[in-house]
């Protein structure tokens, strides 16, 4: 009898196994992907029963009620998946519990479609992936004599008690920028939201890595492991940074002060973060092999649960969502609820400039940061035998020798082996990518001219390979020059371990080419080199010219509401910060940038570098004004920013052509260049909370109120007449017909009563009136404002203006106007 039962059971098991194999085969035909799913029901942070929550107030995630509710949410996620999807068709990666109720699942498109109609499911969105978006910065921003002084104690006290969360590629805990001083331990402010953290250990991140400066470190890899085969030698399953980007961002925001920046034996200066005494909480969600949005939003959920005061996102989706408005993607919803919980969220605006509407920071609840360069330059020069200096770029030491012009000048194309067995392609012949292609007798001890050609145009060739060739063949130095076929190329200062220079402009290359041809003789296929040159010092900075200038790569407005690029009436970017040629910490492994391998610092550019400047400054503001909410901090930063450069003129912006500039607008710089000192004491602020963000969303004509309720849990009870009524420190109207009345409310955060008078810089084609134009306001009280905009002339492009409130105690409050007048009536 038992044998019969056993046989029957075996047959049943085999049948189940066959069924599972058939199911697996069916699913294998579909390409699996990660899907982010939002579910009905309150998360822990906003559940009244578990947390007794009030917006902006800290929820204790370790309370018994919170733990019970979190378990209930996880169980509900498992129940939805188990009852909706077929066995073996999915793998749950995360349950989101703290600020958003939902989960991430790895499954097929057909199974994801089933989830969309499952009871309790609000949204299913395919994971769009995530991308990575200073010795001089503190001085340029006036921190040593400004905020650091007012904060008390100078740089050694800047940001004390505040915790900055960094979601990125991790951190190198051994870097001196993150060293811990046992003589001055980090202490939390009484007003800090940070209550708990964790220190997850693993490869390259041993116990003790969370040292008191690094107050918490976690990593998120379920999404990455689901969609790719991770490489254990670089994709470390620990908070360790094998890339360098996360360390760069963290040290820019809160790296220790007075850290020597040394590369290739040269001291470039002393580095400091904006808030050198702030604590750093690390959330690694980006890996060298792959990055998923599932890992990023899970990190946001955890960072908010830990209670970071400020959250830095120099990463994120690189494009708008396809099937929803930009404000209601999963990523934006997570940022909305992080802000609701009291976390100040800062986001890189993106690096797709200077194209219009290229910003990837869309929502008013996160501060989108544009990038600019300062007046610091690292000029290099190639000195020709006739004394002519050809301008270039390169963090390189000079060539040395007995005579100033003793080094032979050789064009790589002239030094190619005649009988070599290699392809006669530009990579071998012109670009110095392959040492086996060049005659070592000719190039040894010479300065070799390597040319930008097809390999660089197709992004298969690298400057790293030129350096390797130079070392292998004993170049005295190299000049990497532009090619008339491709025109000027963009160049950023790169540290060269051998003397080298990049000459990116055709006009400068022409000077070099004429000299070279005049001093080179060719006889029977051989060249006689009589030209001489040396490479000048390229590591010493000079400070001159107009600044700031909006960087070419920095993403531009106007903001968009969806993938069809319909315009949104909210200003983006929000503010401008230093993001071009920023010195900060780096990981010596440098897995994605071989040219920086072995270095502990890097000079980088991008809005990724601009965002942590604002994070650190926000920490300083929070330290000085601990009761301020995220929207008040954002307002203070915006209304005190400047649109003028060091010449007293409108900030310029780099255009699409190399070396082209134009007068910028709020779509380039947002509110202007951040001014930390003024932001500490703005006078008036514009404050918004979660309910007002819901009213903003409900005001869009094409948005269904049921969708808002489903996505946010909030009803459209108080809809604005227009989205432009959201109480933010700017006014943007993408299609103004006739006239519109816009409402704003200001609050006095000054400790004394103050009288303000209003003036308006009128946009072209629009008349602007502010009521009341003069008012007296007492401390902590508010004043309602009505702003009427009336079209006087139809234009085919936006016009820009400004409303300025001047206070009797010398406060100056500015809000920018960006208006497209489309109809007089």
UniProtKB/TrEMBL annotation:
CDD domains: PA_subtilisin_like. InterPro entries: Peptidase_S8/S53_dom, Peptidase_S8/S53_dom_sf, Peptidase_S8_Asp-AS, Peptidase_S8_His-AS, Peptidase_S8_Ser-AS, Peptidase_S8_subtilisin-rel, S8pro/Inhibitor_I9, S8pro/Inhibitor_I9_sf. Residues 1-28 form the signal peptide. Transmembrane segments: none annotated. Keywords: Hydrolase, Protease, Serine protease, Signal. Pfam families: fn3_6, Inhibitor_I9, Peptidase_S8. Residues 725-819 form the Subtilisin-like protease fibronectin type-III domain. Residues 69-132 form the Inhibitor I9 domain. The keyword Iron does not apply. Belongs to the peptidase S8 family. This is Subtilisin-like protease SBT2.4. It comes from Coptis chinensis.
């Amino acid at each position: 009898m038992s044998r019969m039962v056993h046989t029957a059971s075996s047959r049943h098991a085999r049948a189940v196994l066959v069924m599972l194999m058939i199911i697996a085969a069916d699913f294998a035909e579909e390409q699996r992907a990660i899907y982010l799913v939002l579910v009905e029901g309150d998360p822990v942070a906003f559940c009244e029963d578990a947390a007794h929550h009030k917006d902006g107030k800290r929820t204790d995630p370790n309370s018994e009620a919170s733990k019970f509710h979190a378990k209930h949410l996880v169980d509900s996620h498992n129940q939805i998946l188990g009852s909706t999807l077929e066995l073996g068709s999915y793998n749950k990666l995360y349950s989101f519990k703290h600020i958003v109720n939902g989960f991430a699942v790895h499954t097929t498109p057909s199974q994801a479609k089933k989830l969309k109609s499952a009871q309790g499911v609000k949204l299913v969105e395919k994971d769009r992936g995530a991308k990575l978006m200073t010795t001089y910065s503190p001085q340029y921003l006036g921190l040593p004599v400004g905020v650091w002084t007012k904060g008390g104690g100078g740089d050694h006290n800047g940001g004390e008690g505040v915790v900055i969360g960094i979601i990125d590629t991790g951190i190198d805990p051994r870097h001196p920028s993150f060293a811990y001083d046992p003589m001055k331990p980090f202490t939390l402010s009484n007003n800090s939201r940070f209550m708990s953290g964790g220190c997850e250990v693993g490869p390259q991140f041993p116990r003790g890595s969370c040292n008191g400066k690094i107050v918490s470190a976690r990593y998120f890899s379920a999404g990455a492991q689901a969609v790719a085969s991770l490489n254990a030698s670089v994709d470390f399953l620990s908070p360790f940074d094998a890339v360098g980007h996360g360390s760069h961002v963290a040290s820019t925001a809160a790296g220790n002060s007075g850290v020597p920046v040394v590369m290739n034996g040269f001291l470039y200066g002393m580095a400091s973060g904006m808030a050198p005494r702030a604590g750093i909480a690390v959330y690694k969600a980006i890996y060298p092999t792959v990055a998923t949005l599932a890992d990023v939003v899970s990190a946001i959920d955890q960072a908010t649960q830990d209670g970071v005061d400020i959250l830095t996102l120099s990463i994120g989706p690189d494009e708008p969502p396809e099937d929803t408005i930009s404000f209601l993607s999963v990523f934006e919803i997570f940022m909305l609820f992080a802000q609701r919980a009291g976390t100040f969220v800062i986001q890189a605006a993106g690096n797709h400039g200077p194209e219009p509407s290229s910003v990837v920071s869309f929502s008013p609840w996160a501060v989108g940061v544009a990038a600019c360069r300062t007046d610091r330059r690292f000029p290099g020069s190639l000195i020709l035998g006739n004394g002519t200096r050809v301008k270039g770029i390169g963090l390189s030491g000079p060539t040395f020798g007995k005579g100033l012009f003793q080094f032979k000048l050789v064009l790589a194309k002239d030094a190619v082996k005649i009988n070599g067995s290699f392809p006669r392609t530009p990579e071998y012949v012109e670009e110095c990518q392959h040492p086996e292609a060049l005659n070592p007798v000719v190039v040894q001890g010479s300065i070799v001219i390597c040319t930008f050609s097809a390999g660089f145009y197709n992004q298969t060739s690298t400057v790293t390979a030129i350096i390797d060739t130079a070392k292998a063949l004993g170049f005295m130095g190299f000049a990497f020059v532009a090619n008339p076929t491709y025109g000027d190329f963009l160049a950023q200062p790169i540290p060269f371990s051998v003397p080298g220079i990049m000459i990116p402009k055709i006009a400068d290359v022409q000077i070099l080419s004429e000299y070279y041809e005049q001093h080179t003789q060719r006889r029977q296929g051989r060249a006689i080199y009589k030209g001489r040159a040396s490479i000048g010092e390229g590591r010493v900075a000079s400070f001159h010219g107009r600044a700031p200038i909006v960087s070419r790569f920095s993403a531009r407005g106007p903001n968009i509401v969806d993938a069809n690029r319909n315009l949104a009436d909210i200003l983006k970017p929000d503010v401008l910060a230093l993001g071009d040629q920023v010195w900060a910490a780096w990981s010596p492994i440098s897995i994605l940038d071989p040219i920086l391998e072995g270095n502990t610092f890097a000079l980088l550019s991008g809005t990724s570098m601009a965002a942590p400047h604002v994070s650190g400054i926000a920490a300083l503001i929070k330290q000085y004004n601990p009761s301020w909410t995220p929207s008040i901090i954002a307002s203070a930063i915006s209304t005190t920013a400047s649109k003028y450069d060091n010449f007293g003129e409108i900030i310029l912006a780099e255009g699409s052509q190399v070396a082209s500039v134009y007068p910028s607008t709020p779509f380039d710089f947002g509110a202007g260049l951040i001014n930390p000192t003024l932001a500490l004491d703005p006078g008036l602020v514009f404050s918004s909370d979660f309910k007002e963000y819901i009213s903003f969303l409900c005001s869009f004509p094409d948005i269904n109120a049921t969708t808002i309720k489903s996505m946010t849990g909030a009803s459209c009870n108080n809809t604005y007449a227009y989205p432009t009524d959201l109480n933010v420190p700017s006014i943007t109207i993408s299609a103004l017909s006739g006239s519109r009345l816009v409402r704003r409310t200001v609050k006095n955060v000054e400790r004394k009563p103050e009288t303000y008078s209003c003036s308006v810089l009128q946009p072209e084609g629009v008349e602007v009136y502010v009521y009341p134009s003069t008012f007296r306001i007492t401390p902590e009280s508010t004043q309602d404002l009505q702003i009427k905009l009336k079209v006087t002339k139809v234009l085919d492009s936006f016009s820009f203006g400004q409303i300025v409130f001047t206070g009797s105690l010398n406060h100056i409050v500015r809000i920018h106007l960006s208006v497209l007048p489309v109809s007089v009536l």
